[in-house]
Design goal:
- The chain has about 100 residues and is mostly helical.
- It has a single domain, classed as Orthogonal Bundle (Arc Repressor Mutant, subunit A).
- It has 4 helices and no strands.
- The longest helix is centred in the C-terminal third of the chain and has 19 residues.
- The two termini are about 15 Å apart.
Length: about 100
């Protein structure tokens, strides 16, 4: 099974409006859209699980922190990713090909 490497590098600290002279305007806009989707489209539990996975925590550790089983954390992450894909498919930033 192939796993994607997720990183908080996708979410810059400064999520203000990018300037047109910025070299990577499209990347900044995509990061802003992803950040907004995480904040607005996910349930609290999905957001917590995804944020902890992005920070590099293991599923077992997240499950222990939340007091749930490991498969529950895995399901929260899967459903959260599905919701993010659904929310971002309507923006022009959703990749055409799988990562």
């Amino acid at each position: 099974m192939r796993h994607r490497i997720l990183s908080y590098d996708l979410l810059p600290q400064e999520l203000g409006t990018p300037q047109p002279d910025q070299t990577d305007y499209r990347y900044a806009a995509m990061c802003r859209a992803l950040h907004l989707a995480i904040q607005q489209e996910l349930t609290q539990r999905q957001r917590i699980c995804i944020e902890k996975r992005l920070a590099g925590e293991k599923v077992k550790d997240i499950a222990a922190d939340l007091g749930v089983a490991s498969p529950t954390v895995t399901q929260h992450v899967k459903r959260g990713v599905r919701r993010l894909k659904h929310a971002l498919q309507y923006s022009c930033f959703y990749p055409e090909e799988p990562l």
